[in-house]
Design a protein that fits this description.
185 residues; 2 domains; four-stranded antiparallel beta sheet; 1 helix; disordered N terminus
Length: 185
């Protein structure tokens, strides 16, 4: 396909043709004179920034569709993401013990307010000074989420772990009062 496109472009601008005389006009447009064999000839103007010569790509004209193709719902397990969830109230959870991507996570808390922290780590860090890749406030008896649905996921080079801490974003004080739900791959 690409060879055909290149051949069409070369033909259109007259590369290798002794009869083609191309020029640029004052507006940045390329005027291509095509001399034909057999007496036919013509001029084509390729407008600066507006002309498409051939097609090498897929248009994303409407969110959720590509060239009028919509991804259909499916029951195929391979098309989904199996969530990683807490089995009891806890202060931290390893969502993925190897490199991967975080698509979404939420934490539901009990009586304590605190912070949902995400770490690029294969284990949940010990209490003390930490450097999370995400940190959001969670009110008491509430649910807070982080979701990358409209953009690329958060990439983790080591692993993905989460924690619920009752102190700020850079000091972890674990509180085993949270339920975690994460979508990772």
């Amino acid at each position: 396909m690409l060879r055909l496109l290149c051949a069409m472009v070369f033909l259109a601008i007259g590369i290798g043709s002794a009869s083609a005389q191309n020029s640029w006009d004052g507006n940045g447009n390329l005027n291509v004179n095509i001399g034909g064999r057999g007496g036919t000839a013509g001029t084509v103007t390729l407008g600066a920034g507006s002309a498409v010569v051939g097609k090498v790509g897929i248009d994303q004209t409407t969110p959720g569709t590509t060239n009028a193709i919509v991804i259909a719902p499916t029951s195929a397990a391979a098309a989904g993401i199996t969530p990683v969830v807490s089995t009891a109230a806890e202060g931290g959870h390893v969502l993925k013990g190897s490199p991967g991507n975080l698509y979404s996570v939420y934490a539901t808390t009990g009586a304590a307010a605190g912070y949902l922290m995400i770490f690029n780590a294969t284990t949940v860090p010990a209490d003390g000074a930490v450097t999370p890749i995400e940190c959001v406030y969670v009110p008491a008896s509430a649910t807070t989420s982080i979701n990358y649905g409209s953009g690329p996921p958060a990439a983790a080079s080591a692993g993905i772990s989460v924690a619920f801490s009752t102190t700020g974003c850079f000091t972890k004080t674990s509180s085993a009062t949270a339920f975690f739900h994460g979508n990772v791959q």
